[in-house]
Amino acid sequence: MYVLGIESSCDETAVAIYHPEKGLISHLLYSQADMHSAYGGVVPELASRDHIRKLVPLIRQTLLESQLSASDIVGIAYTAGPGLMGSLLVGAATARSLAWAWQIPAIAVHHMEGHLLAPMLEDNPPSFPFVALLISGGHTLLIEVQGIGDYQLLGESLDDAAGEAFDKTAKLLGLPYPGGPALSELAKQGRERFKFPRPMTDRPGLDFSFSGLKTFALNTITQFVENQQDKADVAFAFQQAMAETLSIKCKRALLQTGLNSLVIAGGVSANHAIRSSLTNMAKSQASQIYFPRPEFCTDNGAMIAYTGCQRLLAGNTQNLEIFARPRWPINELTT
Ligand code: KG4
Ligand code: ZN
User: Fold this and answer.
1) Which of 56, 111, 279, 314 is the most buried (most CB within 10 A)?
2) What angle do the packed helices 85-102 and 44-66 form, to 10 degrees?
């Protein structure tokens, strides 16, 4: 039972094949980052045009590397949202057309559910129930997860997402797109010097707010930054503030739910400082913590193929309508 997964919600074209017993068979990814870096961020129209160019060749290559043919595939999963409308439509139209041609079901996958389930691809996967922190470029979500499709939203960002705050602060520091990894690299040379706030940790609740961190970074840069070391010190302080804030909120979520298992996923969970801060916190709470491997923290096809496979096994397929939804709250999903 081989399931093909297609991811095209933003600036990565990715394809993978997953089998429920054999596991992940193959996964390929083409990143548009170089193309968008000239503009300092993702240009939606360029993104969708590039998905059109890359997606079908990538599907061919994935089948070839897996030594499989179209007749081996039993379902096609694709990211139906949230994401950029044009980019989503390329994946949706391609997946639905192939599914029709191959006479197999297509499965519309929620991108954040894909991130949420990415740790299931690792050797030591989490078991339900758990608390999940999803930290990506567009979303910051704390969720109580009882099972696939059983998601209770505990908290979310009221303004910028964690990844967005990384990217905007990186831009202020003059770093190239994509800003998150560049800022994290620069922070390695940083020293303990500036103290950034830990937003919304001084009051109860599990929501986040990160736009103030970006403003704090701007003020610090204007006042103090003259050379490369100063920039590294700002990057270090920003990253520390982000890591500690996320840890404080996750600790609260564990205590509030009484659960002792924590899943961290989404692009920002590739960040070393954040991984280690959350790992230390989980240890202090006698809780287990699970991350995807770094390449499956950021967007990838493997998480879509895996999620699609689970949804297919549960009988969740849709009709032939090309379904894409740029805004799609995860708690609207059902089992
Ligand atoms: O999950 P993702 O690949 O795409 C979305 O669904 O948004 O997340 C992308 C975000 C970007 O904001 C990127 O800068 C951030 O994840 N990111 C990082 C790191 N790697 C990716 N942020 C901090 N440190 C990293 N190492
Ligand atoms: Zn993503």
Assistant:
1) 111
2) 30
Domains 2-116+296-332 and 128-291 share a fold: yes
CB of 310 closer than 6 angstroms to any ligand 1 atom? no
Sort strands 12-19 and 2-7 into parallel, antiparallel or unpaired.
antiparallel
Is a pLDDT exceeding 90 seen at residue 325? yes
pLDDT category at 316 given cuts 50, 70, 90 is confident
Band of pLDDT at residue 186, cut at 50, 70 and 90 = very high
Distance from residue 296's CA to the centre of ligand 2 (Å): 10
- The DSSP code sequence of 42-109 is --HHHHHHHHHHHHHHHHHHHHHHHT--GGGEEEEEEEEESS-HHHHHHHHHHHHHHHHHHT--EEEE
Any ligand 1 atom below 6 A from CB of 163 = yes
Of 37, 135, 136, 275, the one to substitute when testing ligand 1's pocket (max ligand atoms within 8 A of C-beta) is 136
**166 Cβ below 6 A of ligand 1:** yes
Alpha carbon distance 307, 304 (integer Å): 5
pLDDT tens for residues 47-81? Answer: 999 999 999 999 999 999 999 999 999 999 999 99
- Both tokens of 156, joined, read 């979310």
Ligand nearest to the CA of 303: 2
Q: Does domain 2-116+296-332 have CATH number 3.30.420.40?
A: yes
CA distance 160 to 214: 9
Q: How far is CA 298 from the centre of its chain?
A: 5
With 80 as the cut, is the pLDDT of residue 254 above it? Answer: yes
Q: What predicted TM-score, i.e. pTM, was given to this entire model?
A: 0.97
Structure token pair of residue 179: 């800003």
Query: What confidence score (pLDDT) does residue 320 get?
Result: 72
Query: Candidates 3.30.420.40, 3.30.310.50, 3.40.50.720, 3.90.226.10; correct CATH number of 128-291?
Result: 3.30.420.40
Q: How far is the centre of ligand 1, averaged over its atoms, from the C-alpha of 260 (Å)?
A: 26
